[in-house]
Write a structure and sequence with these properties.
This protein has 10 helices and 9 strands. The protein is α+β, with helices and mostly antiparallel strands.
């Protein structure tokens, strides 16, 4: 379908496709097997200026919107979800600064992110907090000209690899979620260390670690906005980022679909390529329908966000949920088309299926997204009365 991309948007897509085909695909199996962080690929992404997409122009970026970012994420995810997660997580970590940072904070931190020299990460999840932000135990106490952070963040993408971390911590635990604030913490600060690199089912090229704060002192000026705005900052950050997770779903599903089609044309049974069999054709048709429906939805929501819409929580949740549920189903079905071959590491399908599962979990499980959607529907009904 023609989604009426501008010439510049087509250039973004072409750049992402080139990196995917020339740099990511040849390395993805090895990165997955070794659970190796894709440093060389990150450099290639930086050299191509893709990190500049989500940074405003006045701070060294290109000032592009969610739609442009989704175009890049989709193509990178088609090649390797682990790599695209590393890239997208930097946008996630940068968004609180973009949305809530002062001019001085933006000038200090965003140019390095735009250049791809400094990766970012977002620190919200803890053992007892993730979907329930009220369960955050990490604290930040103001002592003179510094905040002192104590606590642990769990399962943080880009943990240990990123240089800049936006961290949600409690400045007043008695206020619950309204007592949360958001801080910029730099790698190398005293009292800030990392746990072991997690071993995961999928996205194994992406680094996932604990963030440990033990009397970590950060400058007072590293707070984003004012005390107590952490809950709002986290919600607005995730609402803006979730459509990108939907784009990841579209990308990995498209990659799996193309592998299945290619295999079905080459695999002969009973004297015919299996793509000639109606049962296989129907599976491929269903995949194509689901992918195109998800792509249309993700693109529409991304453009809706870029229009300046204020309340995007329901739309972002819908795009994330539909596209990632689709990705899980399509990767499973694509592997089924390939049969025993799809189950083997010789082909990329088993990796794609393993990778796809995380999309239904991170940045808010799809069950929680359905809660968000349901609550939004109730509010809309009340307003109409």
């Amino acid at each position: 379908m023609d989604y009426f991309l501008t010439e510049e948007q087509q250039m973004i897509r072409d750049t992402a496709i080139q990196i995917a085909e020339e740099v990511i695909v040849p390395a993805r199996a090895d990165l997955d097997e070794k659970e190796e962080f894709p440093k060389d690929i990150v450099k290639a992404l930086a050299q191509s200026d893709l990190f500049r997409l989500f940074v405003p122009e006045e701070y060294g970026g290109l000032g592009k919107g969610s739609f442009d970012l989704c175009i890049a994420i989709e193509e990178l995810s088609k090649a390797c979800l682990g790599v695209s997660t590393t890239y997208a997580a930097t946008a996630l970590g940068a968004y609180p600064i973009v949305l809530f940072g002062s001019d001085a904070q933006k000038k200090r931190f965003l140019p390095g992110i735009a250049e791809g020299k400094r990766l970012a990460a977002f620190g919200l999840t803890e053992t007892s907090a993730g979907s329930d932000m009220g369960g955050i135990q990490t604290t930040a106490k103001l002592e003179g000209s510094q905040y002192v952070l104590n606590g642990t963040k769990q399962w943080i993408t880009n943990g240990g690899e990123a240089e800049i971390y936006t961290i949600i911590a409690m400045t007043d635990k008695e206020k619950g979620p309204r007592g949360a604030s958001v801080f910029i913490v730099e790698k190398g600060y005293r009292g800030f260390t990392f746990g072991k690199k997690e071993k995961k089912l999928g996205i194994r090229a992406s680094a996932t670690r604990e963030l440990v704060f033990n009397n970590c002192r950060i400058p007072k000026e590293n707070i984003l906005g004012k005390e107590g705005n952490g809950f709002i900052a986290a919600l607005k950050t995730l609402n803006k980022a979730r459509v990108g997770v939907g784009a990841q779903g579209v990308g990995v599903a498209q990659g799996a679909f193309e592998e299945a089609v290619k295999f079905a044309k080459e695999r002969y049974q009973f004297g015919h390529p299996i793509i000639n069999f109606q049962a296989v054709q129907h599976m491929l048709a269903d995949m194509a329908i689901q992918i195109e429906a998800a792509r249309s939805l993700v693109y529409s929501v991304a453009r809706h966000i870029d229009s300046g819409a204020k309340d995007i929580s329901k739309e972002s949740a819908i795009a994330k949920t539909f596209a990632t549920d689709m990705a899980m189903k399509v990767t499973v079905d694509a592997l089924q088309v390939m049969g025993g071959a799809g189950y083997m590491k010789e082909y990329p399908l088993e990796k794609m299926m393993r990778d796809a599962k995380i999309l239904q979990i991170y940045e808010g499980t799809n069950q929680v997204q359905r809660n968000v959607i349901g609550q939004a529907i109730i509010k809309e009904m009340i307003r109409k009365k």
